[in-house]
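User: Hello, can you help with two protein structures?

Assistant: Certainly.
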Amino acid sequence: MQLGSTSGLPRRHPAAGESSLKHDTGDFVVNYVLVVFGEPAFYENNVEPVGMDAVMKQIVFVRHAEAETGSNVPDQERPLTPNGRAAASQQSRLIVCCHVRVQGIITSPAVRARETAEALAAGLPDKVPVEAADALYNKSSDVVLRFLQRLPDDLDTVLVVGHLPWVAQLVSLLVTESRDLFFDFPPGTLACVNLDLLHWEELEP
């Protein structure tokens, strides 16, 4: 695997950057977008830690993996497809490879998001609690931002599983100060945002 920074992106901090990787298993593709804002965290030819000493808080945003479609199932109850479950399990390996130490997982209560969160949690080396929050389903990015601002400060790295449009809008907003998306966010995409913050209440675009 190779992660390399991409130049020319709009940035709110000189050290911000973006890198993308698709891991092809032969049966499905795992989408991985690494977005760092804070200290530089990109290394050519090796996957190195994205958690840096200068980074105080870290959010791993995940869009739920591929879900079943069908008009007979209410939106909130749609489960993952077999490929979606497999891809979510692969995502946890990428998190471990990048030495991101997740301390808590918060997910939308929708079935597809909860199943994604549970698959990710199962692949992490440490037991990480998974909690569902209504603020992450069918809400605006402003509502989700206010929810994140109320996270307890003893939680430094949190993984948040949600939906479009807010998950992609928030990543773009935190990195570029704009809700205009600067990369695709298909199902299963993961984005890690390093934040130079001491307290969650300081989180703002």
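That covers the first. Now for the second protein you mentioned:
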Amino acid sequence: MLARARLSLLTNEIDDATRWLDKTLAAAPNLVDAHAVRGLFLLENDPSEKSLTTWQRGLPTGADEHPDVWVVRGMLARTIKDQSGATRCFVEALRRFPNHRQATHQLSLTLAALGEEAQATALSHRVRHLDKLSRSIDDIYSRPDWDEPWLVSAQQLEALGRMPEAAAWYQAIARMGFGGISAQQKAVTLSSKLSADTPIINPSL
């Protein structure tokens, strides 16, 4: 049921999304994923302080561990002009899922509003890399025999500081015969720099 609610949201079928969300929460009132989707739905369709505050009060135990819950809380803070509170919420979302595109974008906006231009700019660059990665992966699904999106995906992973993933992608690209000698060299270079202590994501990037 929740999958149908998500699909209805993607296709902008508001009535169907509402119906499936209601059914999901009636059947599983403590399902945090469903509450998170409900919050994102409200952001798009009823982003009033009243509706979001009501949503917040109805969250079940464990909701604090869901990144989307923190994104909605951040947007609620922004509606009441609490930029510092919103910043904290978006940081909490990224602690739970560092590649969360919406949290990254919103954090860049709140930091800019607080005068933290350097950090805001760095995050806006990260958003662009995440967008390029998303588009290139979509291209792979539509044309898996086209080498360019494979290479772009690996490059974006590297730019995002996701070195273990980037190394694995370059290795796969080399095995498929894409990218020529440069992909093989990149796979070897990145792999040689990895260790058991290598973070999944480099926090400095």
